[in-house]
Amino acid sequence: MNKWLTKEEQYQKALNPNQIQRIEDPKLREIRSKHWLYRHKIFMDEAHISDQELMRLYKLDEEAEQREIDKYKKAKK
Description:
0% strand; single chain; 77 residues; 4 helices; 70% helix; mainly alpha
């Protein structure tokens, strides 16, 4: 079994921490991990954040992550 994720797998919209650790490129792994940790943090603080705010923050971070991934892909070419 191959330890690293394929290119298609590492760009899936949602990855869990185990999958993120299987991303071979350290920069991409850092991007994915940073955003996963932020989203995990806001979900863990759900008692202090309304559902609407939680979803707003989640969507904003998803967009920010996608922009970072797109920038990473461009720089990689």
